[in-house]
Amino acid sequence: MPSATQDAGATPESRTLGEAINIATRSVHTRLNKLIILRLRLALPPHANDASNYVQGLLHIAPIYMTFETLWQEILETPIALSTTTTTPSASGLPTDDAPSTSHPKVAPRIHAVLAATHFPTLSRSASLSADLSQITGWSAADLAAQLQNTPRESPALAAMVARARETAGERPHALLAYAWVLYMALFAGGRFIRAALERVDVGDRFWGPLYEDPDLELEQDQDEDEDEDEEVSPTELEDEEREGALGGEGGRGGKATMPGTFPGSELAIGEKDGAKVVGKEVEGERDGDGDGDGKERELKHPLSFFRFDTPADGQDLRQAFKARVAEATSVLSPAEIEDVVNEARDIFEQMVGLVGELDDVCGTEYEAATAA
């Protein structure tokens, strides 16, 4: 969540938009942080055996990111007709012309320019959320899309947030800045804490799934097991198998196990060294037992791309650039528009608090969280 490091004593006129949001949301922000931190440990070992509670959390925030990012992109892709009104550039280089675009009458060129200037494609989280969910659950693209579509139908709080974002884009498009500030800046503060906590769970731990096996894959495995049962295995062959890899556990004969954190069908080579299980490297070319690959090892990564940014400074450079652009937008927006953005940000936090309450019902964490406080 955004940090409150700004000078609260500064006059409202001298505050940047980001500072105004942070000051106005400090109380509810603190409340939301406490709710999340109390529940985070309930989603991790030893309180949780798998990532199902974490997945529920992602399913309830992914539609929010996906909705506002899609709406923002749609506005940017709407052609702007040239205005006949004289356009006066501001100090930041953004136009101050309020004449609305004829192709999108609710978005003035000035607001369109603000949204374009503060839009960073590398900040977008829709693709990374989908990737993480697919990796942890093992769902196909179609199954994941169905789950993301169905979650708001079963969550009144989430449905209200998605509807509010759509309303905002249509009536107060400048207030989409509130979603960007709250949801992106969150990843550089509280998000870093959550990422660190999740990374403490070993990448090879079965906590990371896949949680839901592909039914077709299970059918193939059952057929393979039936064929194996029909085969006669000599005591010597059985002894060799146990020595060469059956110690891998649930992977069965051959020492292969479904690799935690990837799609069903990926396999993890598991063995023993000095009595300790060795995990964490996937051997390419050994999938399906064909042995035709080059045998190169690939480092496994936690399915946490939602919290990672592909920049030299892992997003910190991106964070500074985004903050600077939002600060520049302060001088372009009118006082009423700034108030819209601040109020929207406050409402986002309040709605997120309500969403956590609904997640308690889904995950059964409210009582445990209360007793852990």
List the helices and strands and how they pair.
Elements: H1 17-40, H2 52-77, H3 109-117, H4 126-137, H5 141-154, H6 156-171, H7 176-185, H8 190-199, H9 215-230, H10 235-244, E1 256-258, E2 267-269, E3 271-273, E4 276-278, E5 281-283, E6 297-299, H11 316-330, H12 335-363, H13 366-372
Antiparallel strand pairs: 1-2, 3-4, 5-6
Primary descriptors:
373 residues; two-stranded antiparallel ribbon; 13 helices
Q: What does this protein structure show overall?
A:
- The chain has 373 residues and is mostly helical.
- Helix content is 53%, strand content 5%.
- It contains 13 helices and six strands.
- Helix 2 packs antiparallel against helix 4, helix 2 crosses helix 5 and helix 2 packs antiparallel against helix 12.
- The longest helix is centred in the last third of the chain and has 29 residues.
- It is globular and about 50 Å long.
- The N terminus is likely disordered.
Largest sheet: 2 strands, antiparallel
pLDDT < 50 runs, ≥5 residues = 1-8, 82-105, 237-293
**Mean of pLDDT:** 77
Estimated structural class = mainly alpha
- Level of helix content? 40-55%
Task: Write down the secondary-structure element order.
Answer: HHHHHHHHHHEEEEEEHHH
Specify the number of helices: 13
Our estimate of the beta-strand percent is under 5%
Shape: globular
Number of strands: 6
Q: How far is the first residue's CA from the last residue's CA?
A: 20 Å
Strand order of the largest sheet: 1-2
From the alpha carbons, calculate the radius of gyration and give it in angstroms: 25 Å
